[in-house]
Amino acid sequence: MSTTTSQIAPPRRSRLSGLLRARELPVSIALIALVGLTYAANPLFLSPQGTKDLLLNATIMIILAAGQTLVIITRNIDLSVGSILGLVAFGTGSLFANVEGIPIWAVFAIGIVFGAVLGAVNGLLVTLAGVPALVITLGTLYIFRGVNNWWAGGTQYFADDRPDAFGGLAVDTLFGFPIITLIAIVVVVVLAVALAGTRAGRDLYAIGSDPAAARLFGIAIGRRVFFAFLANGMLAGLAGVLYAARFNSVGATTGTGMELNVVAAAVVGGVAIFGGSGSVVGAGLGALLLTTITGALTALRVDKFWQQAIVGVLILTAILIDRVASIRTARRLKTGAASEEKK
């Protein structure tokens, strides 16, 4: 009996230690603590409508952060996602206003394809030009935004220009969740499975961890990075369509400034800014945490300046924690290698 117990015990300790080291754990604890403290100060914070608003506010950011995770894992970044969302959102409004009777599924398909094309532009420029993604996507951010300004001009499309069924995606609920939030959850689950359970997903981590080693192992780095940008563009396109369903109006300024919040959500959620580690689940939790912070501070009537300052502190803290963890891991591996050599 004692032998059996000793054989079973180590895996339990291993699973527990693995859980405690999970990058998503601190974000989850912070989120639970934030919600609990805010509810204690203002019980209306978790009223049915308040909870629904929290989920709706986080939905778009969750999808964008999940897509951004695919790019950051490969040691890249996409600063143009806000502009892509803006273009697709305005295009969605334009379709409903100018194409009578267009099916909602067709609008989703067109929006996702539109986003994929813009993401592919980023991917091609990054992989073919060999210029850092930060520079490339900073340029396309302004290009896409300029195109949207030219296209939209002073035109805005409002809720009355879209079908009621489309607007209902942000109003109707299923199992207590808004439908667009369920779409975001499905996106996160699918991407999480793809990253953990497919060769393509594991290749992205390998590229971010050590590009030189990944190349030696025969991984097509350029192709994988291109598809990461392509998938990110598709998700930004999906987010753009859902944005048009969620908000009352879309126009030339839609999506402005969202890119920094998206990167912040991914980093706060445990996605290493230096690439090679992190998860879409963590990014989704990071997006939920940031939007909840904004909602909580608003409920507590905290000045907007302090809301932004707190988000900035969170980003710096997440980066520092990630850096410290990386250094500790490197030292541990070095110590282990030295021990093996002595043996």
From TrEMBL:
Its main location: membrane. It is a multi-pass membrane protein. It is found in: Cell membrane. GO terms for cellular component: plasma membrane. The chain crosses the membrane at residues 25-42, 54-72, 79-96, 102-118, 125-144, 175-196, 225-245, 257-274, 281-299, 305-325. The keyword Cell membrane applies. Keywords: Cell inner membrane, Cell membrane, Membrane, Transmembrane, Transmembrane helix, Transport. CDD domains: TM_PBP1_transp_AraH_like. Part of the ABC transporter complex LsrABCD involved in autoinducer 2 (AI-2) import. Probably responsible for the translocation of the substrate across the membrane. The complex is composed of two ATP-binding proteins (LsrA), two transmembrane proteins (LsrC and LsrD) and a solute-binding protein (LsrB). This is Autoinducer 2 import system permease protein LsrC.
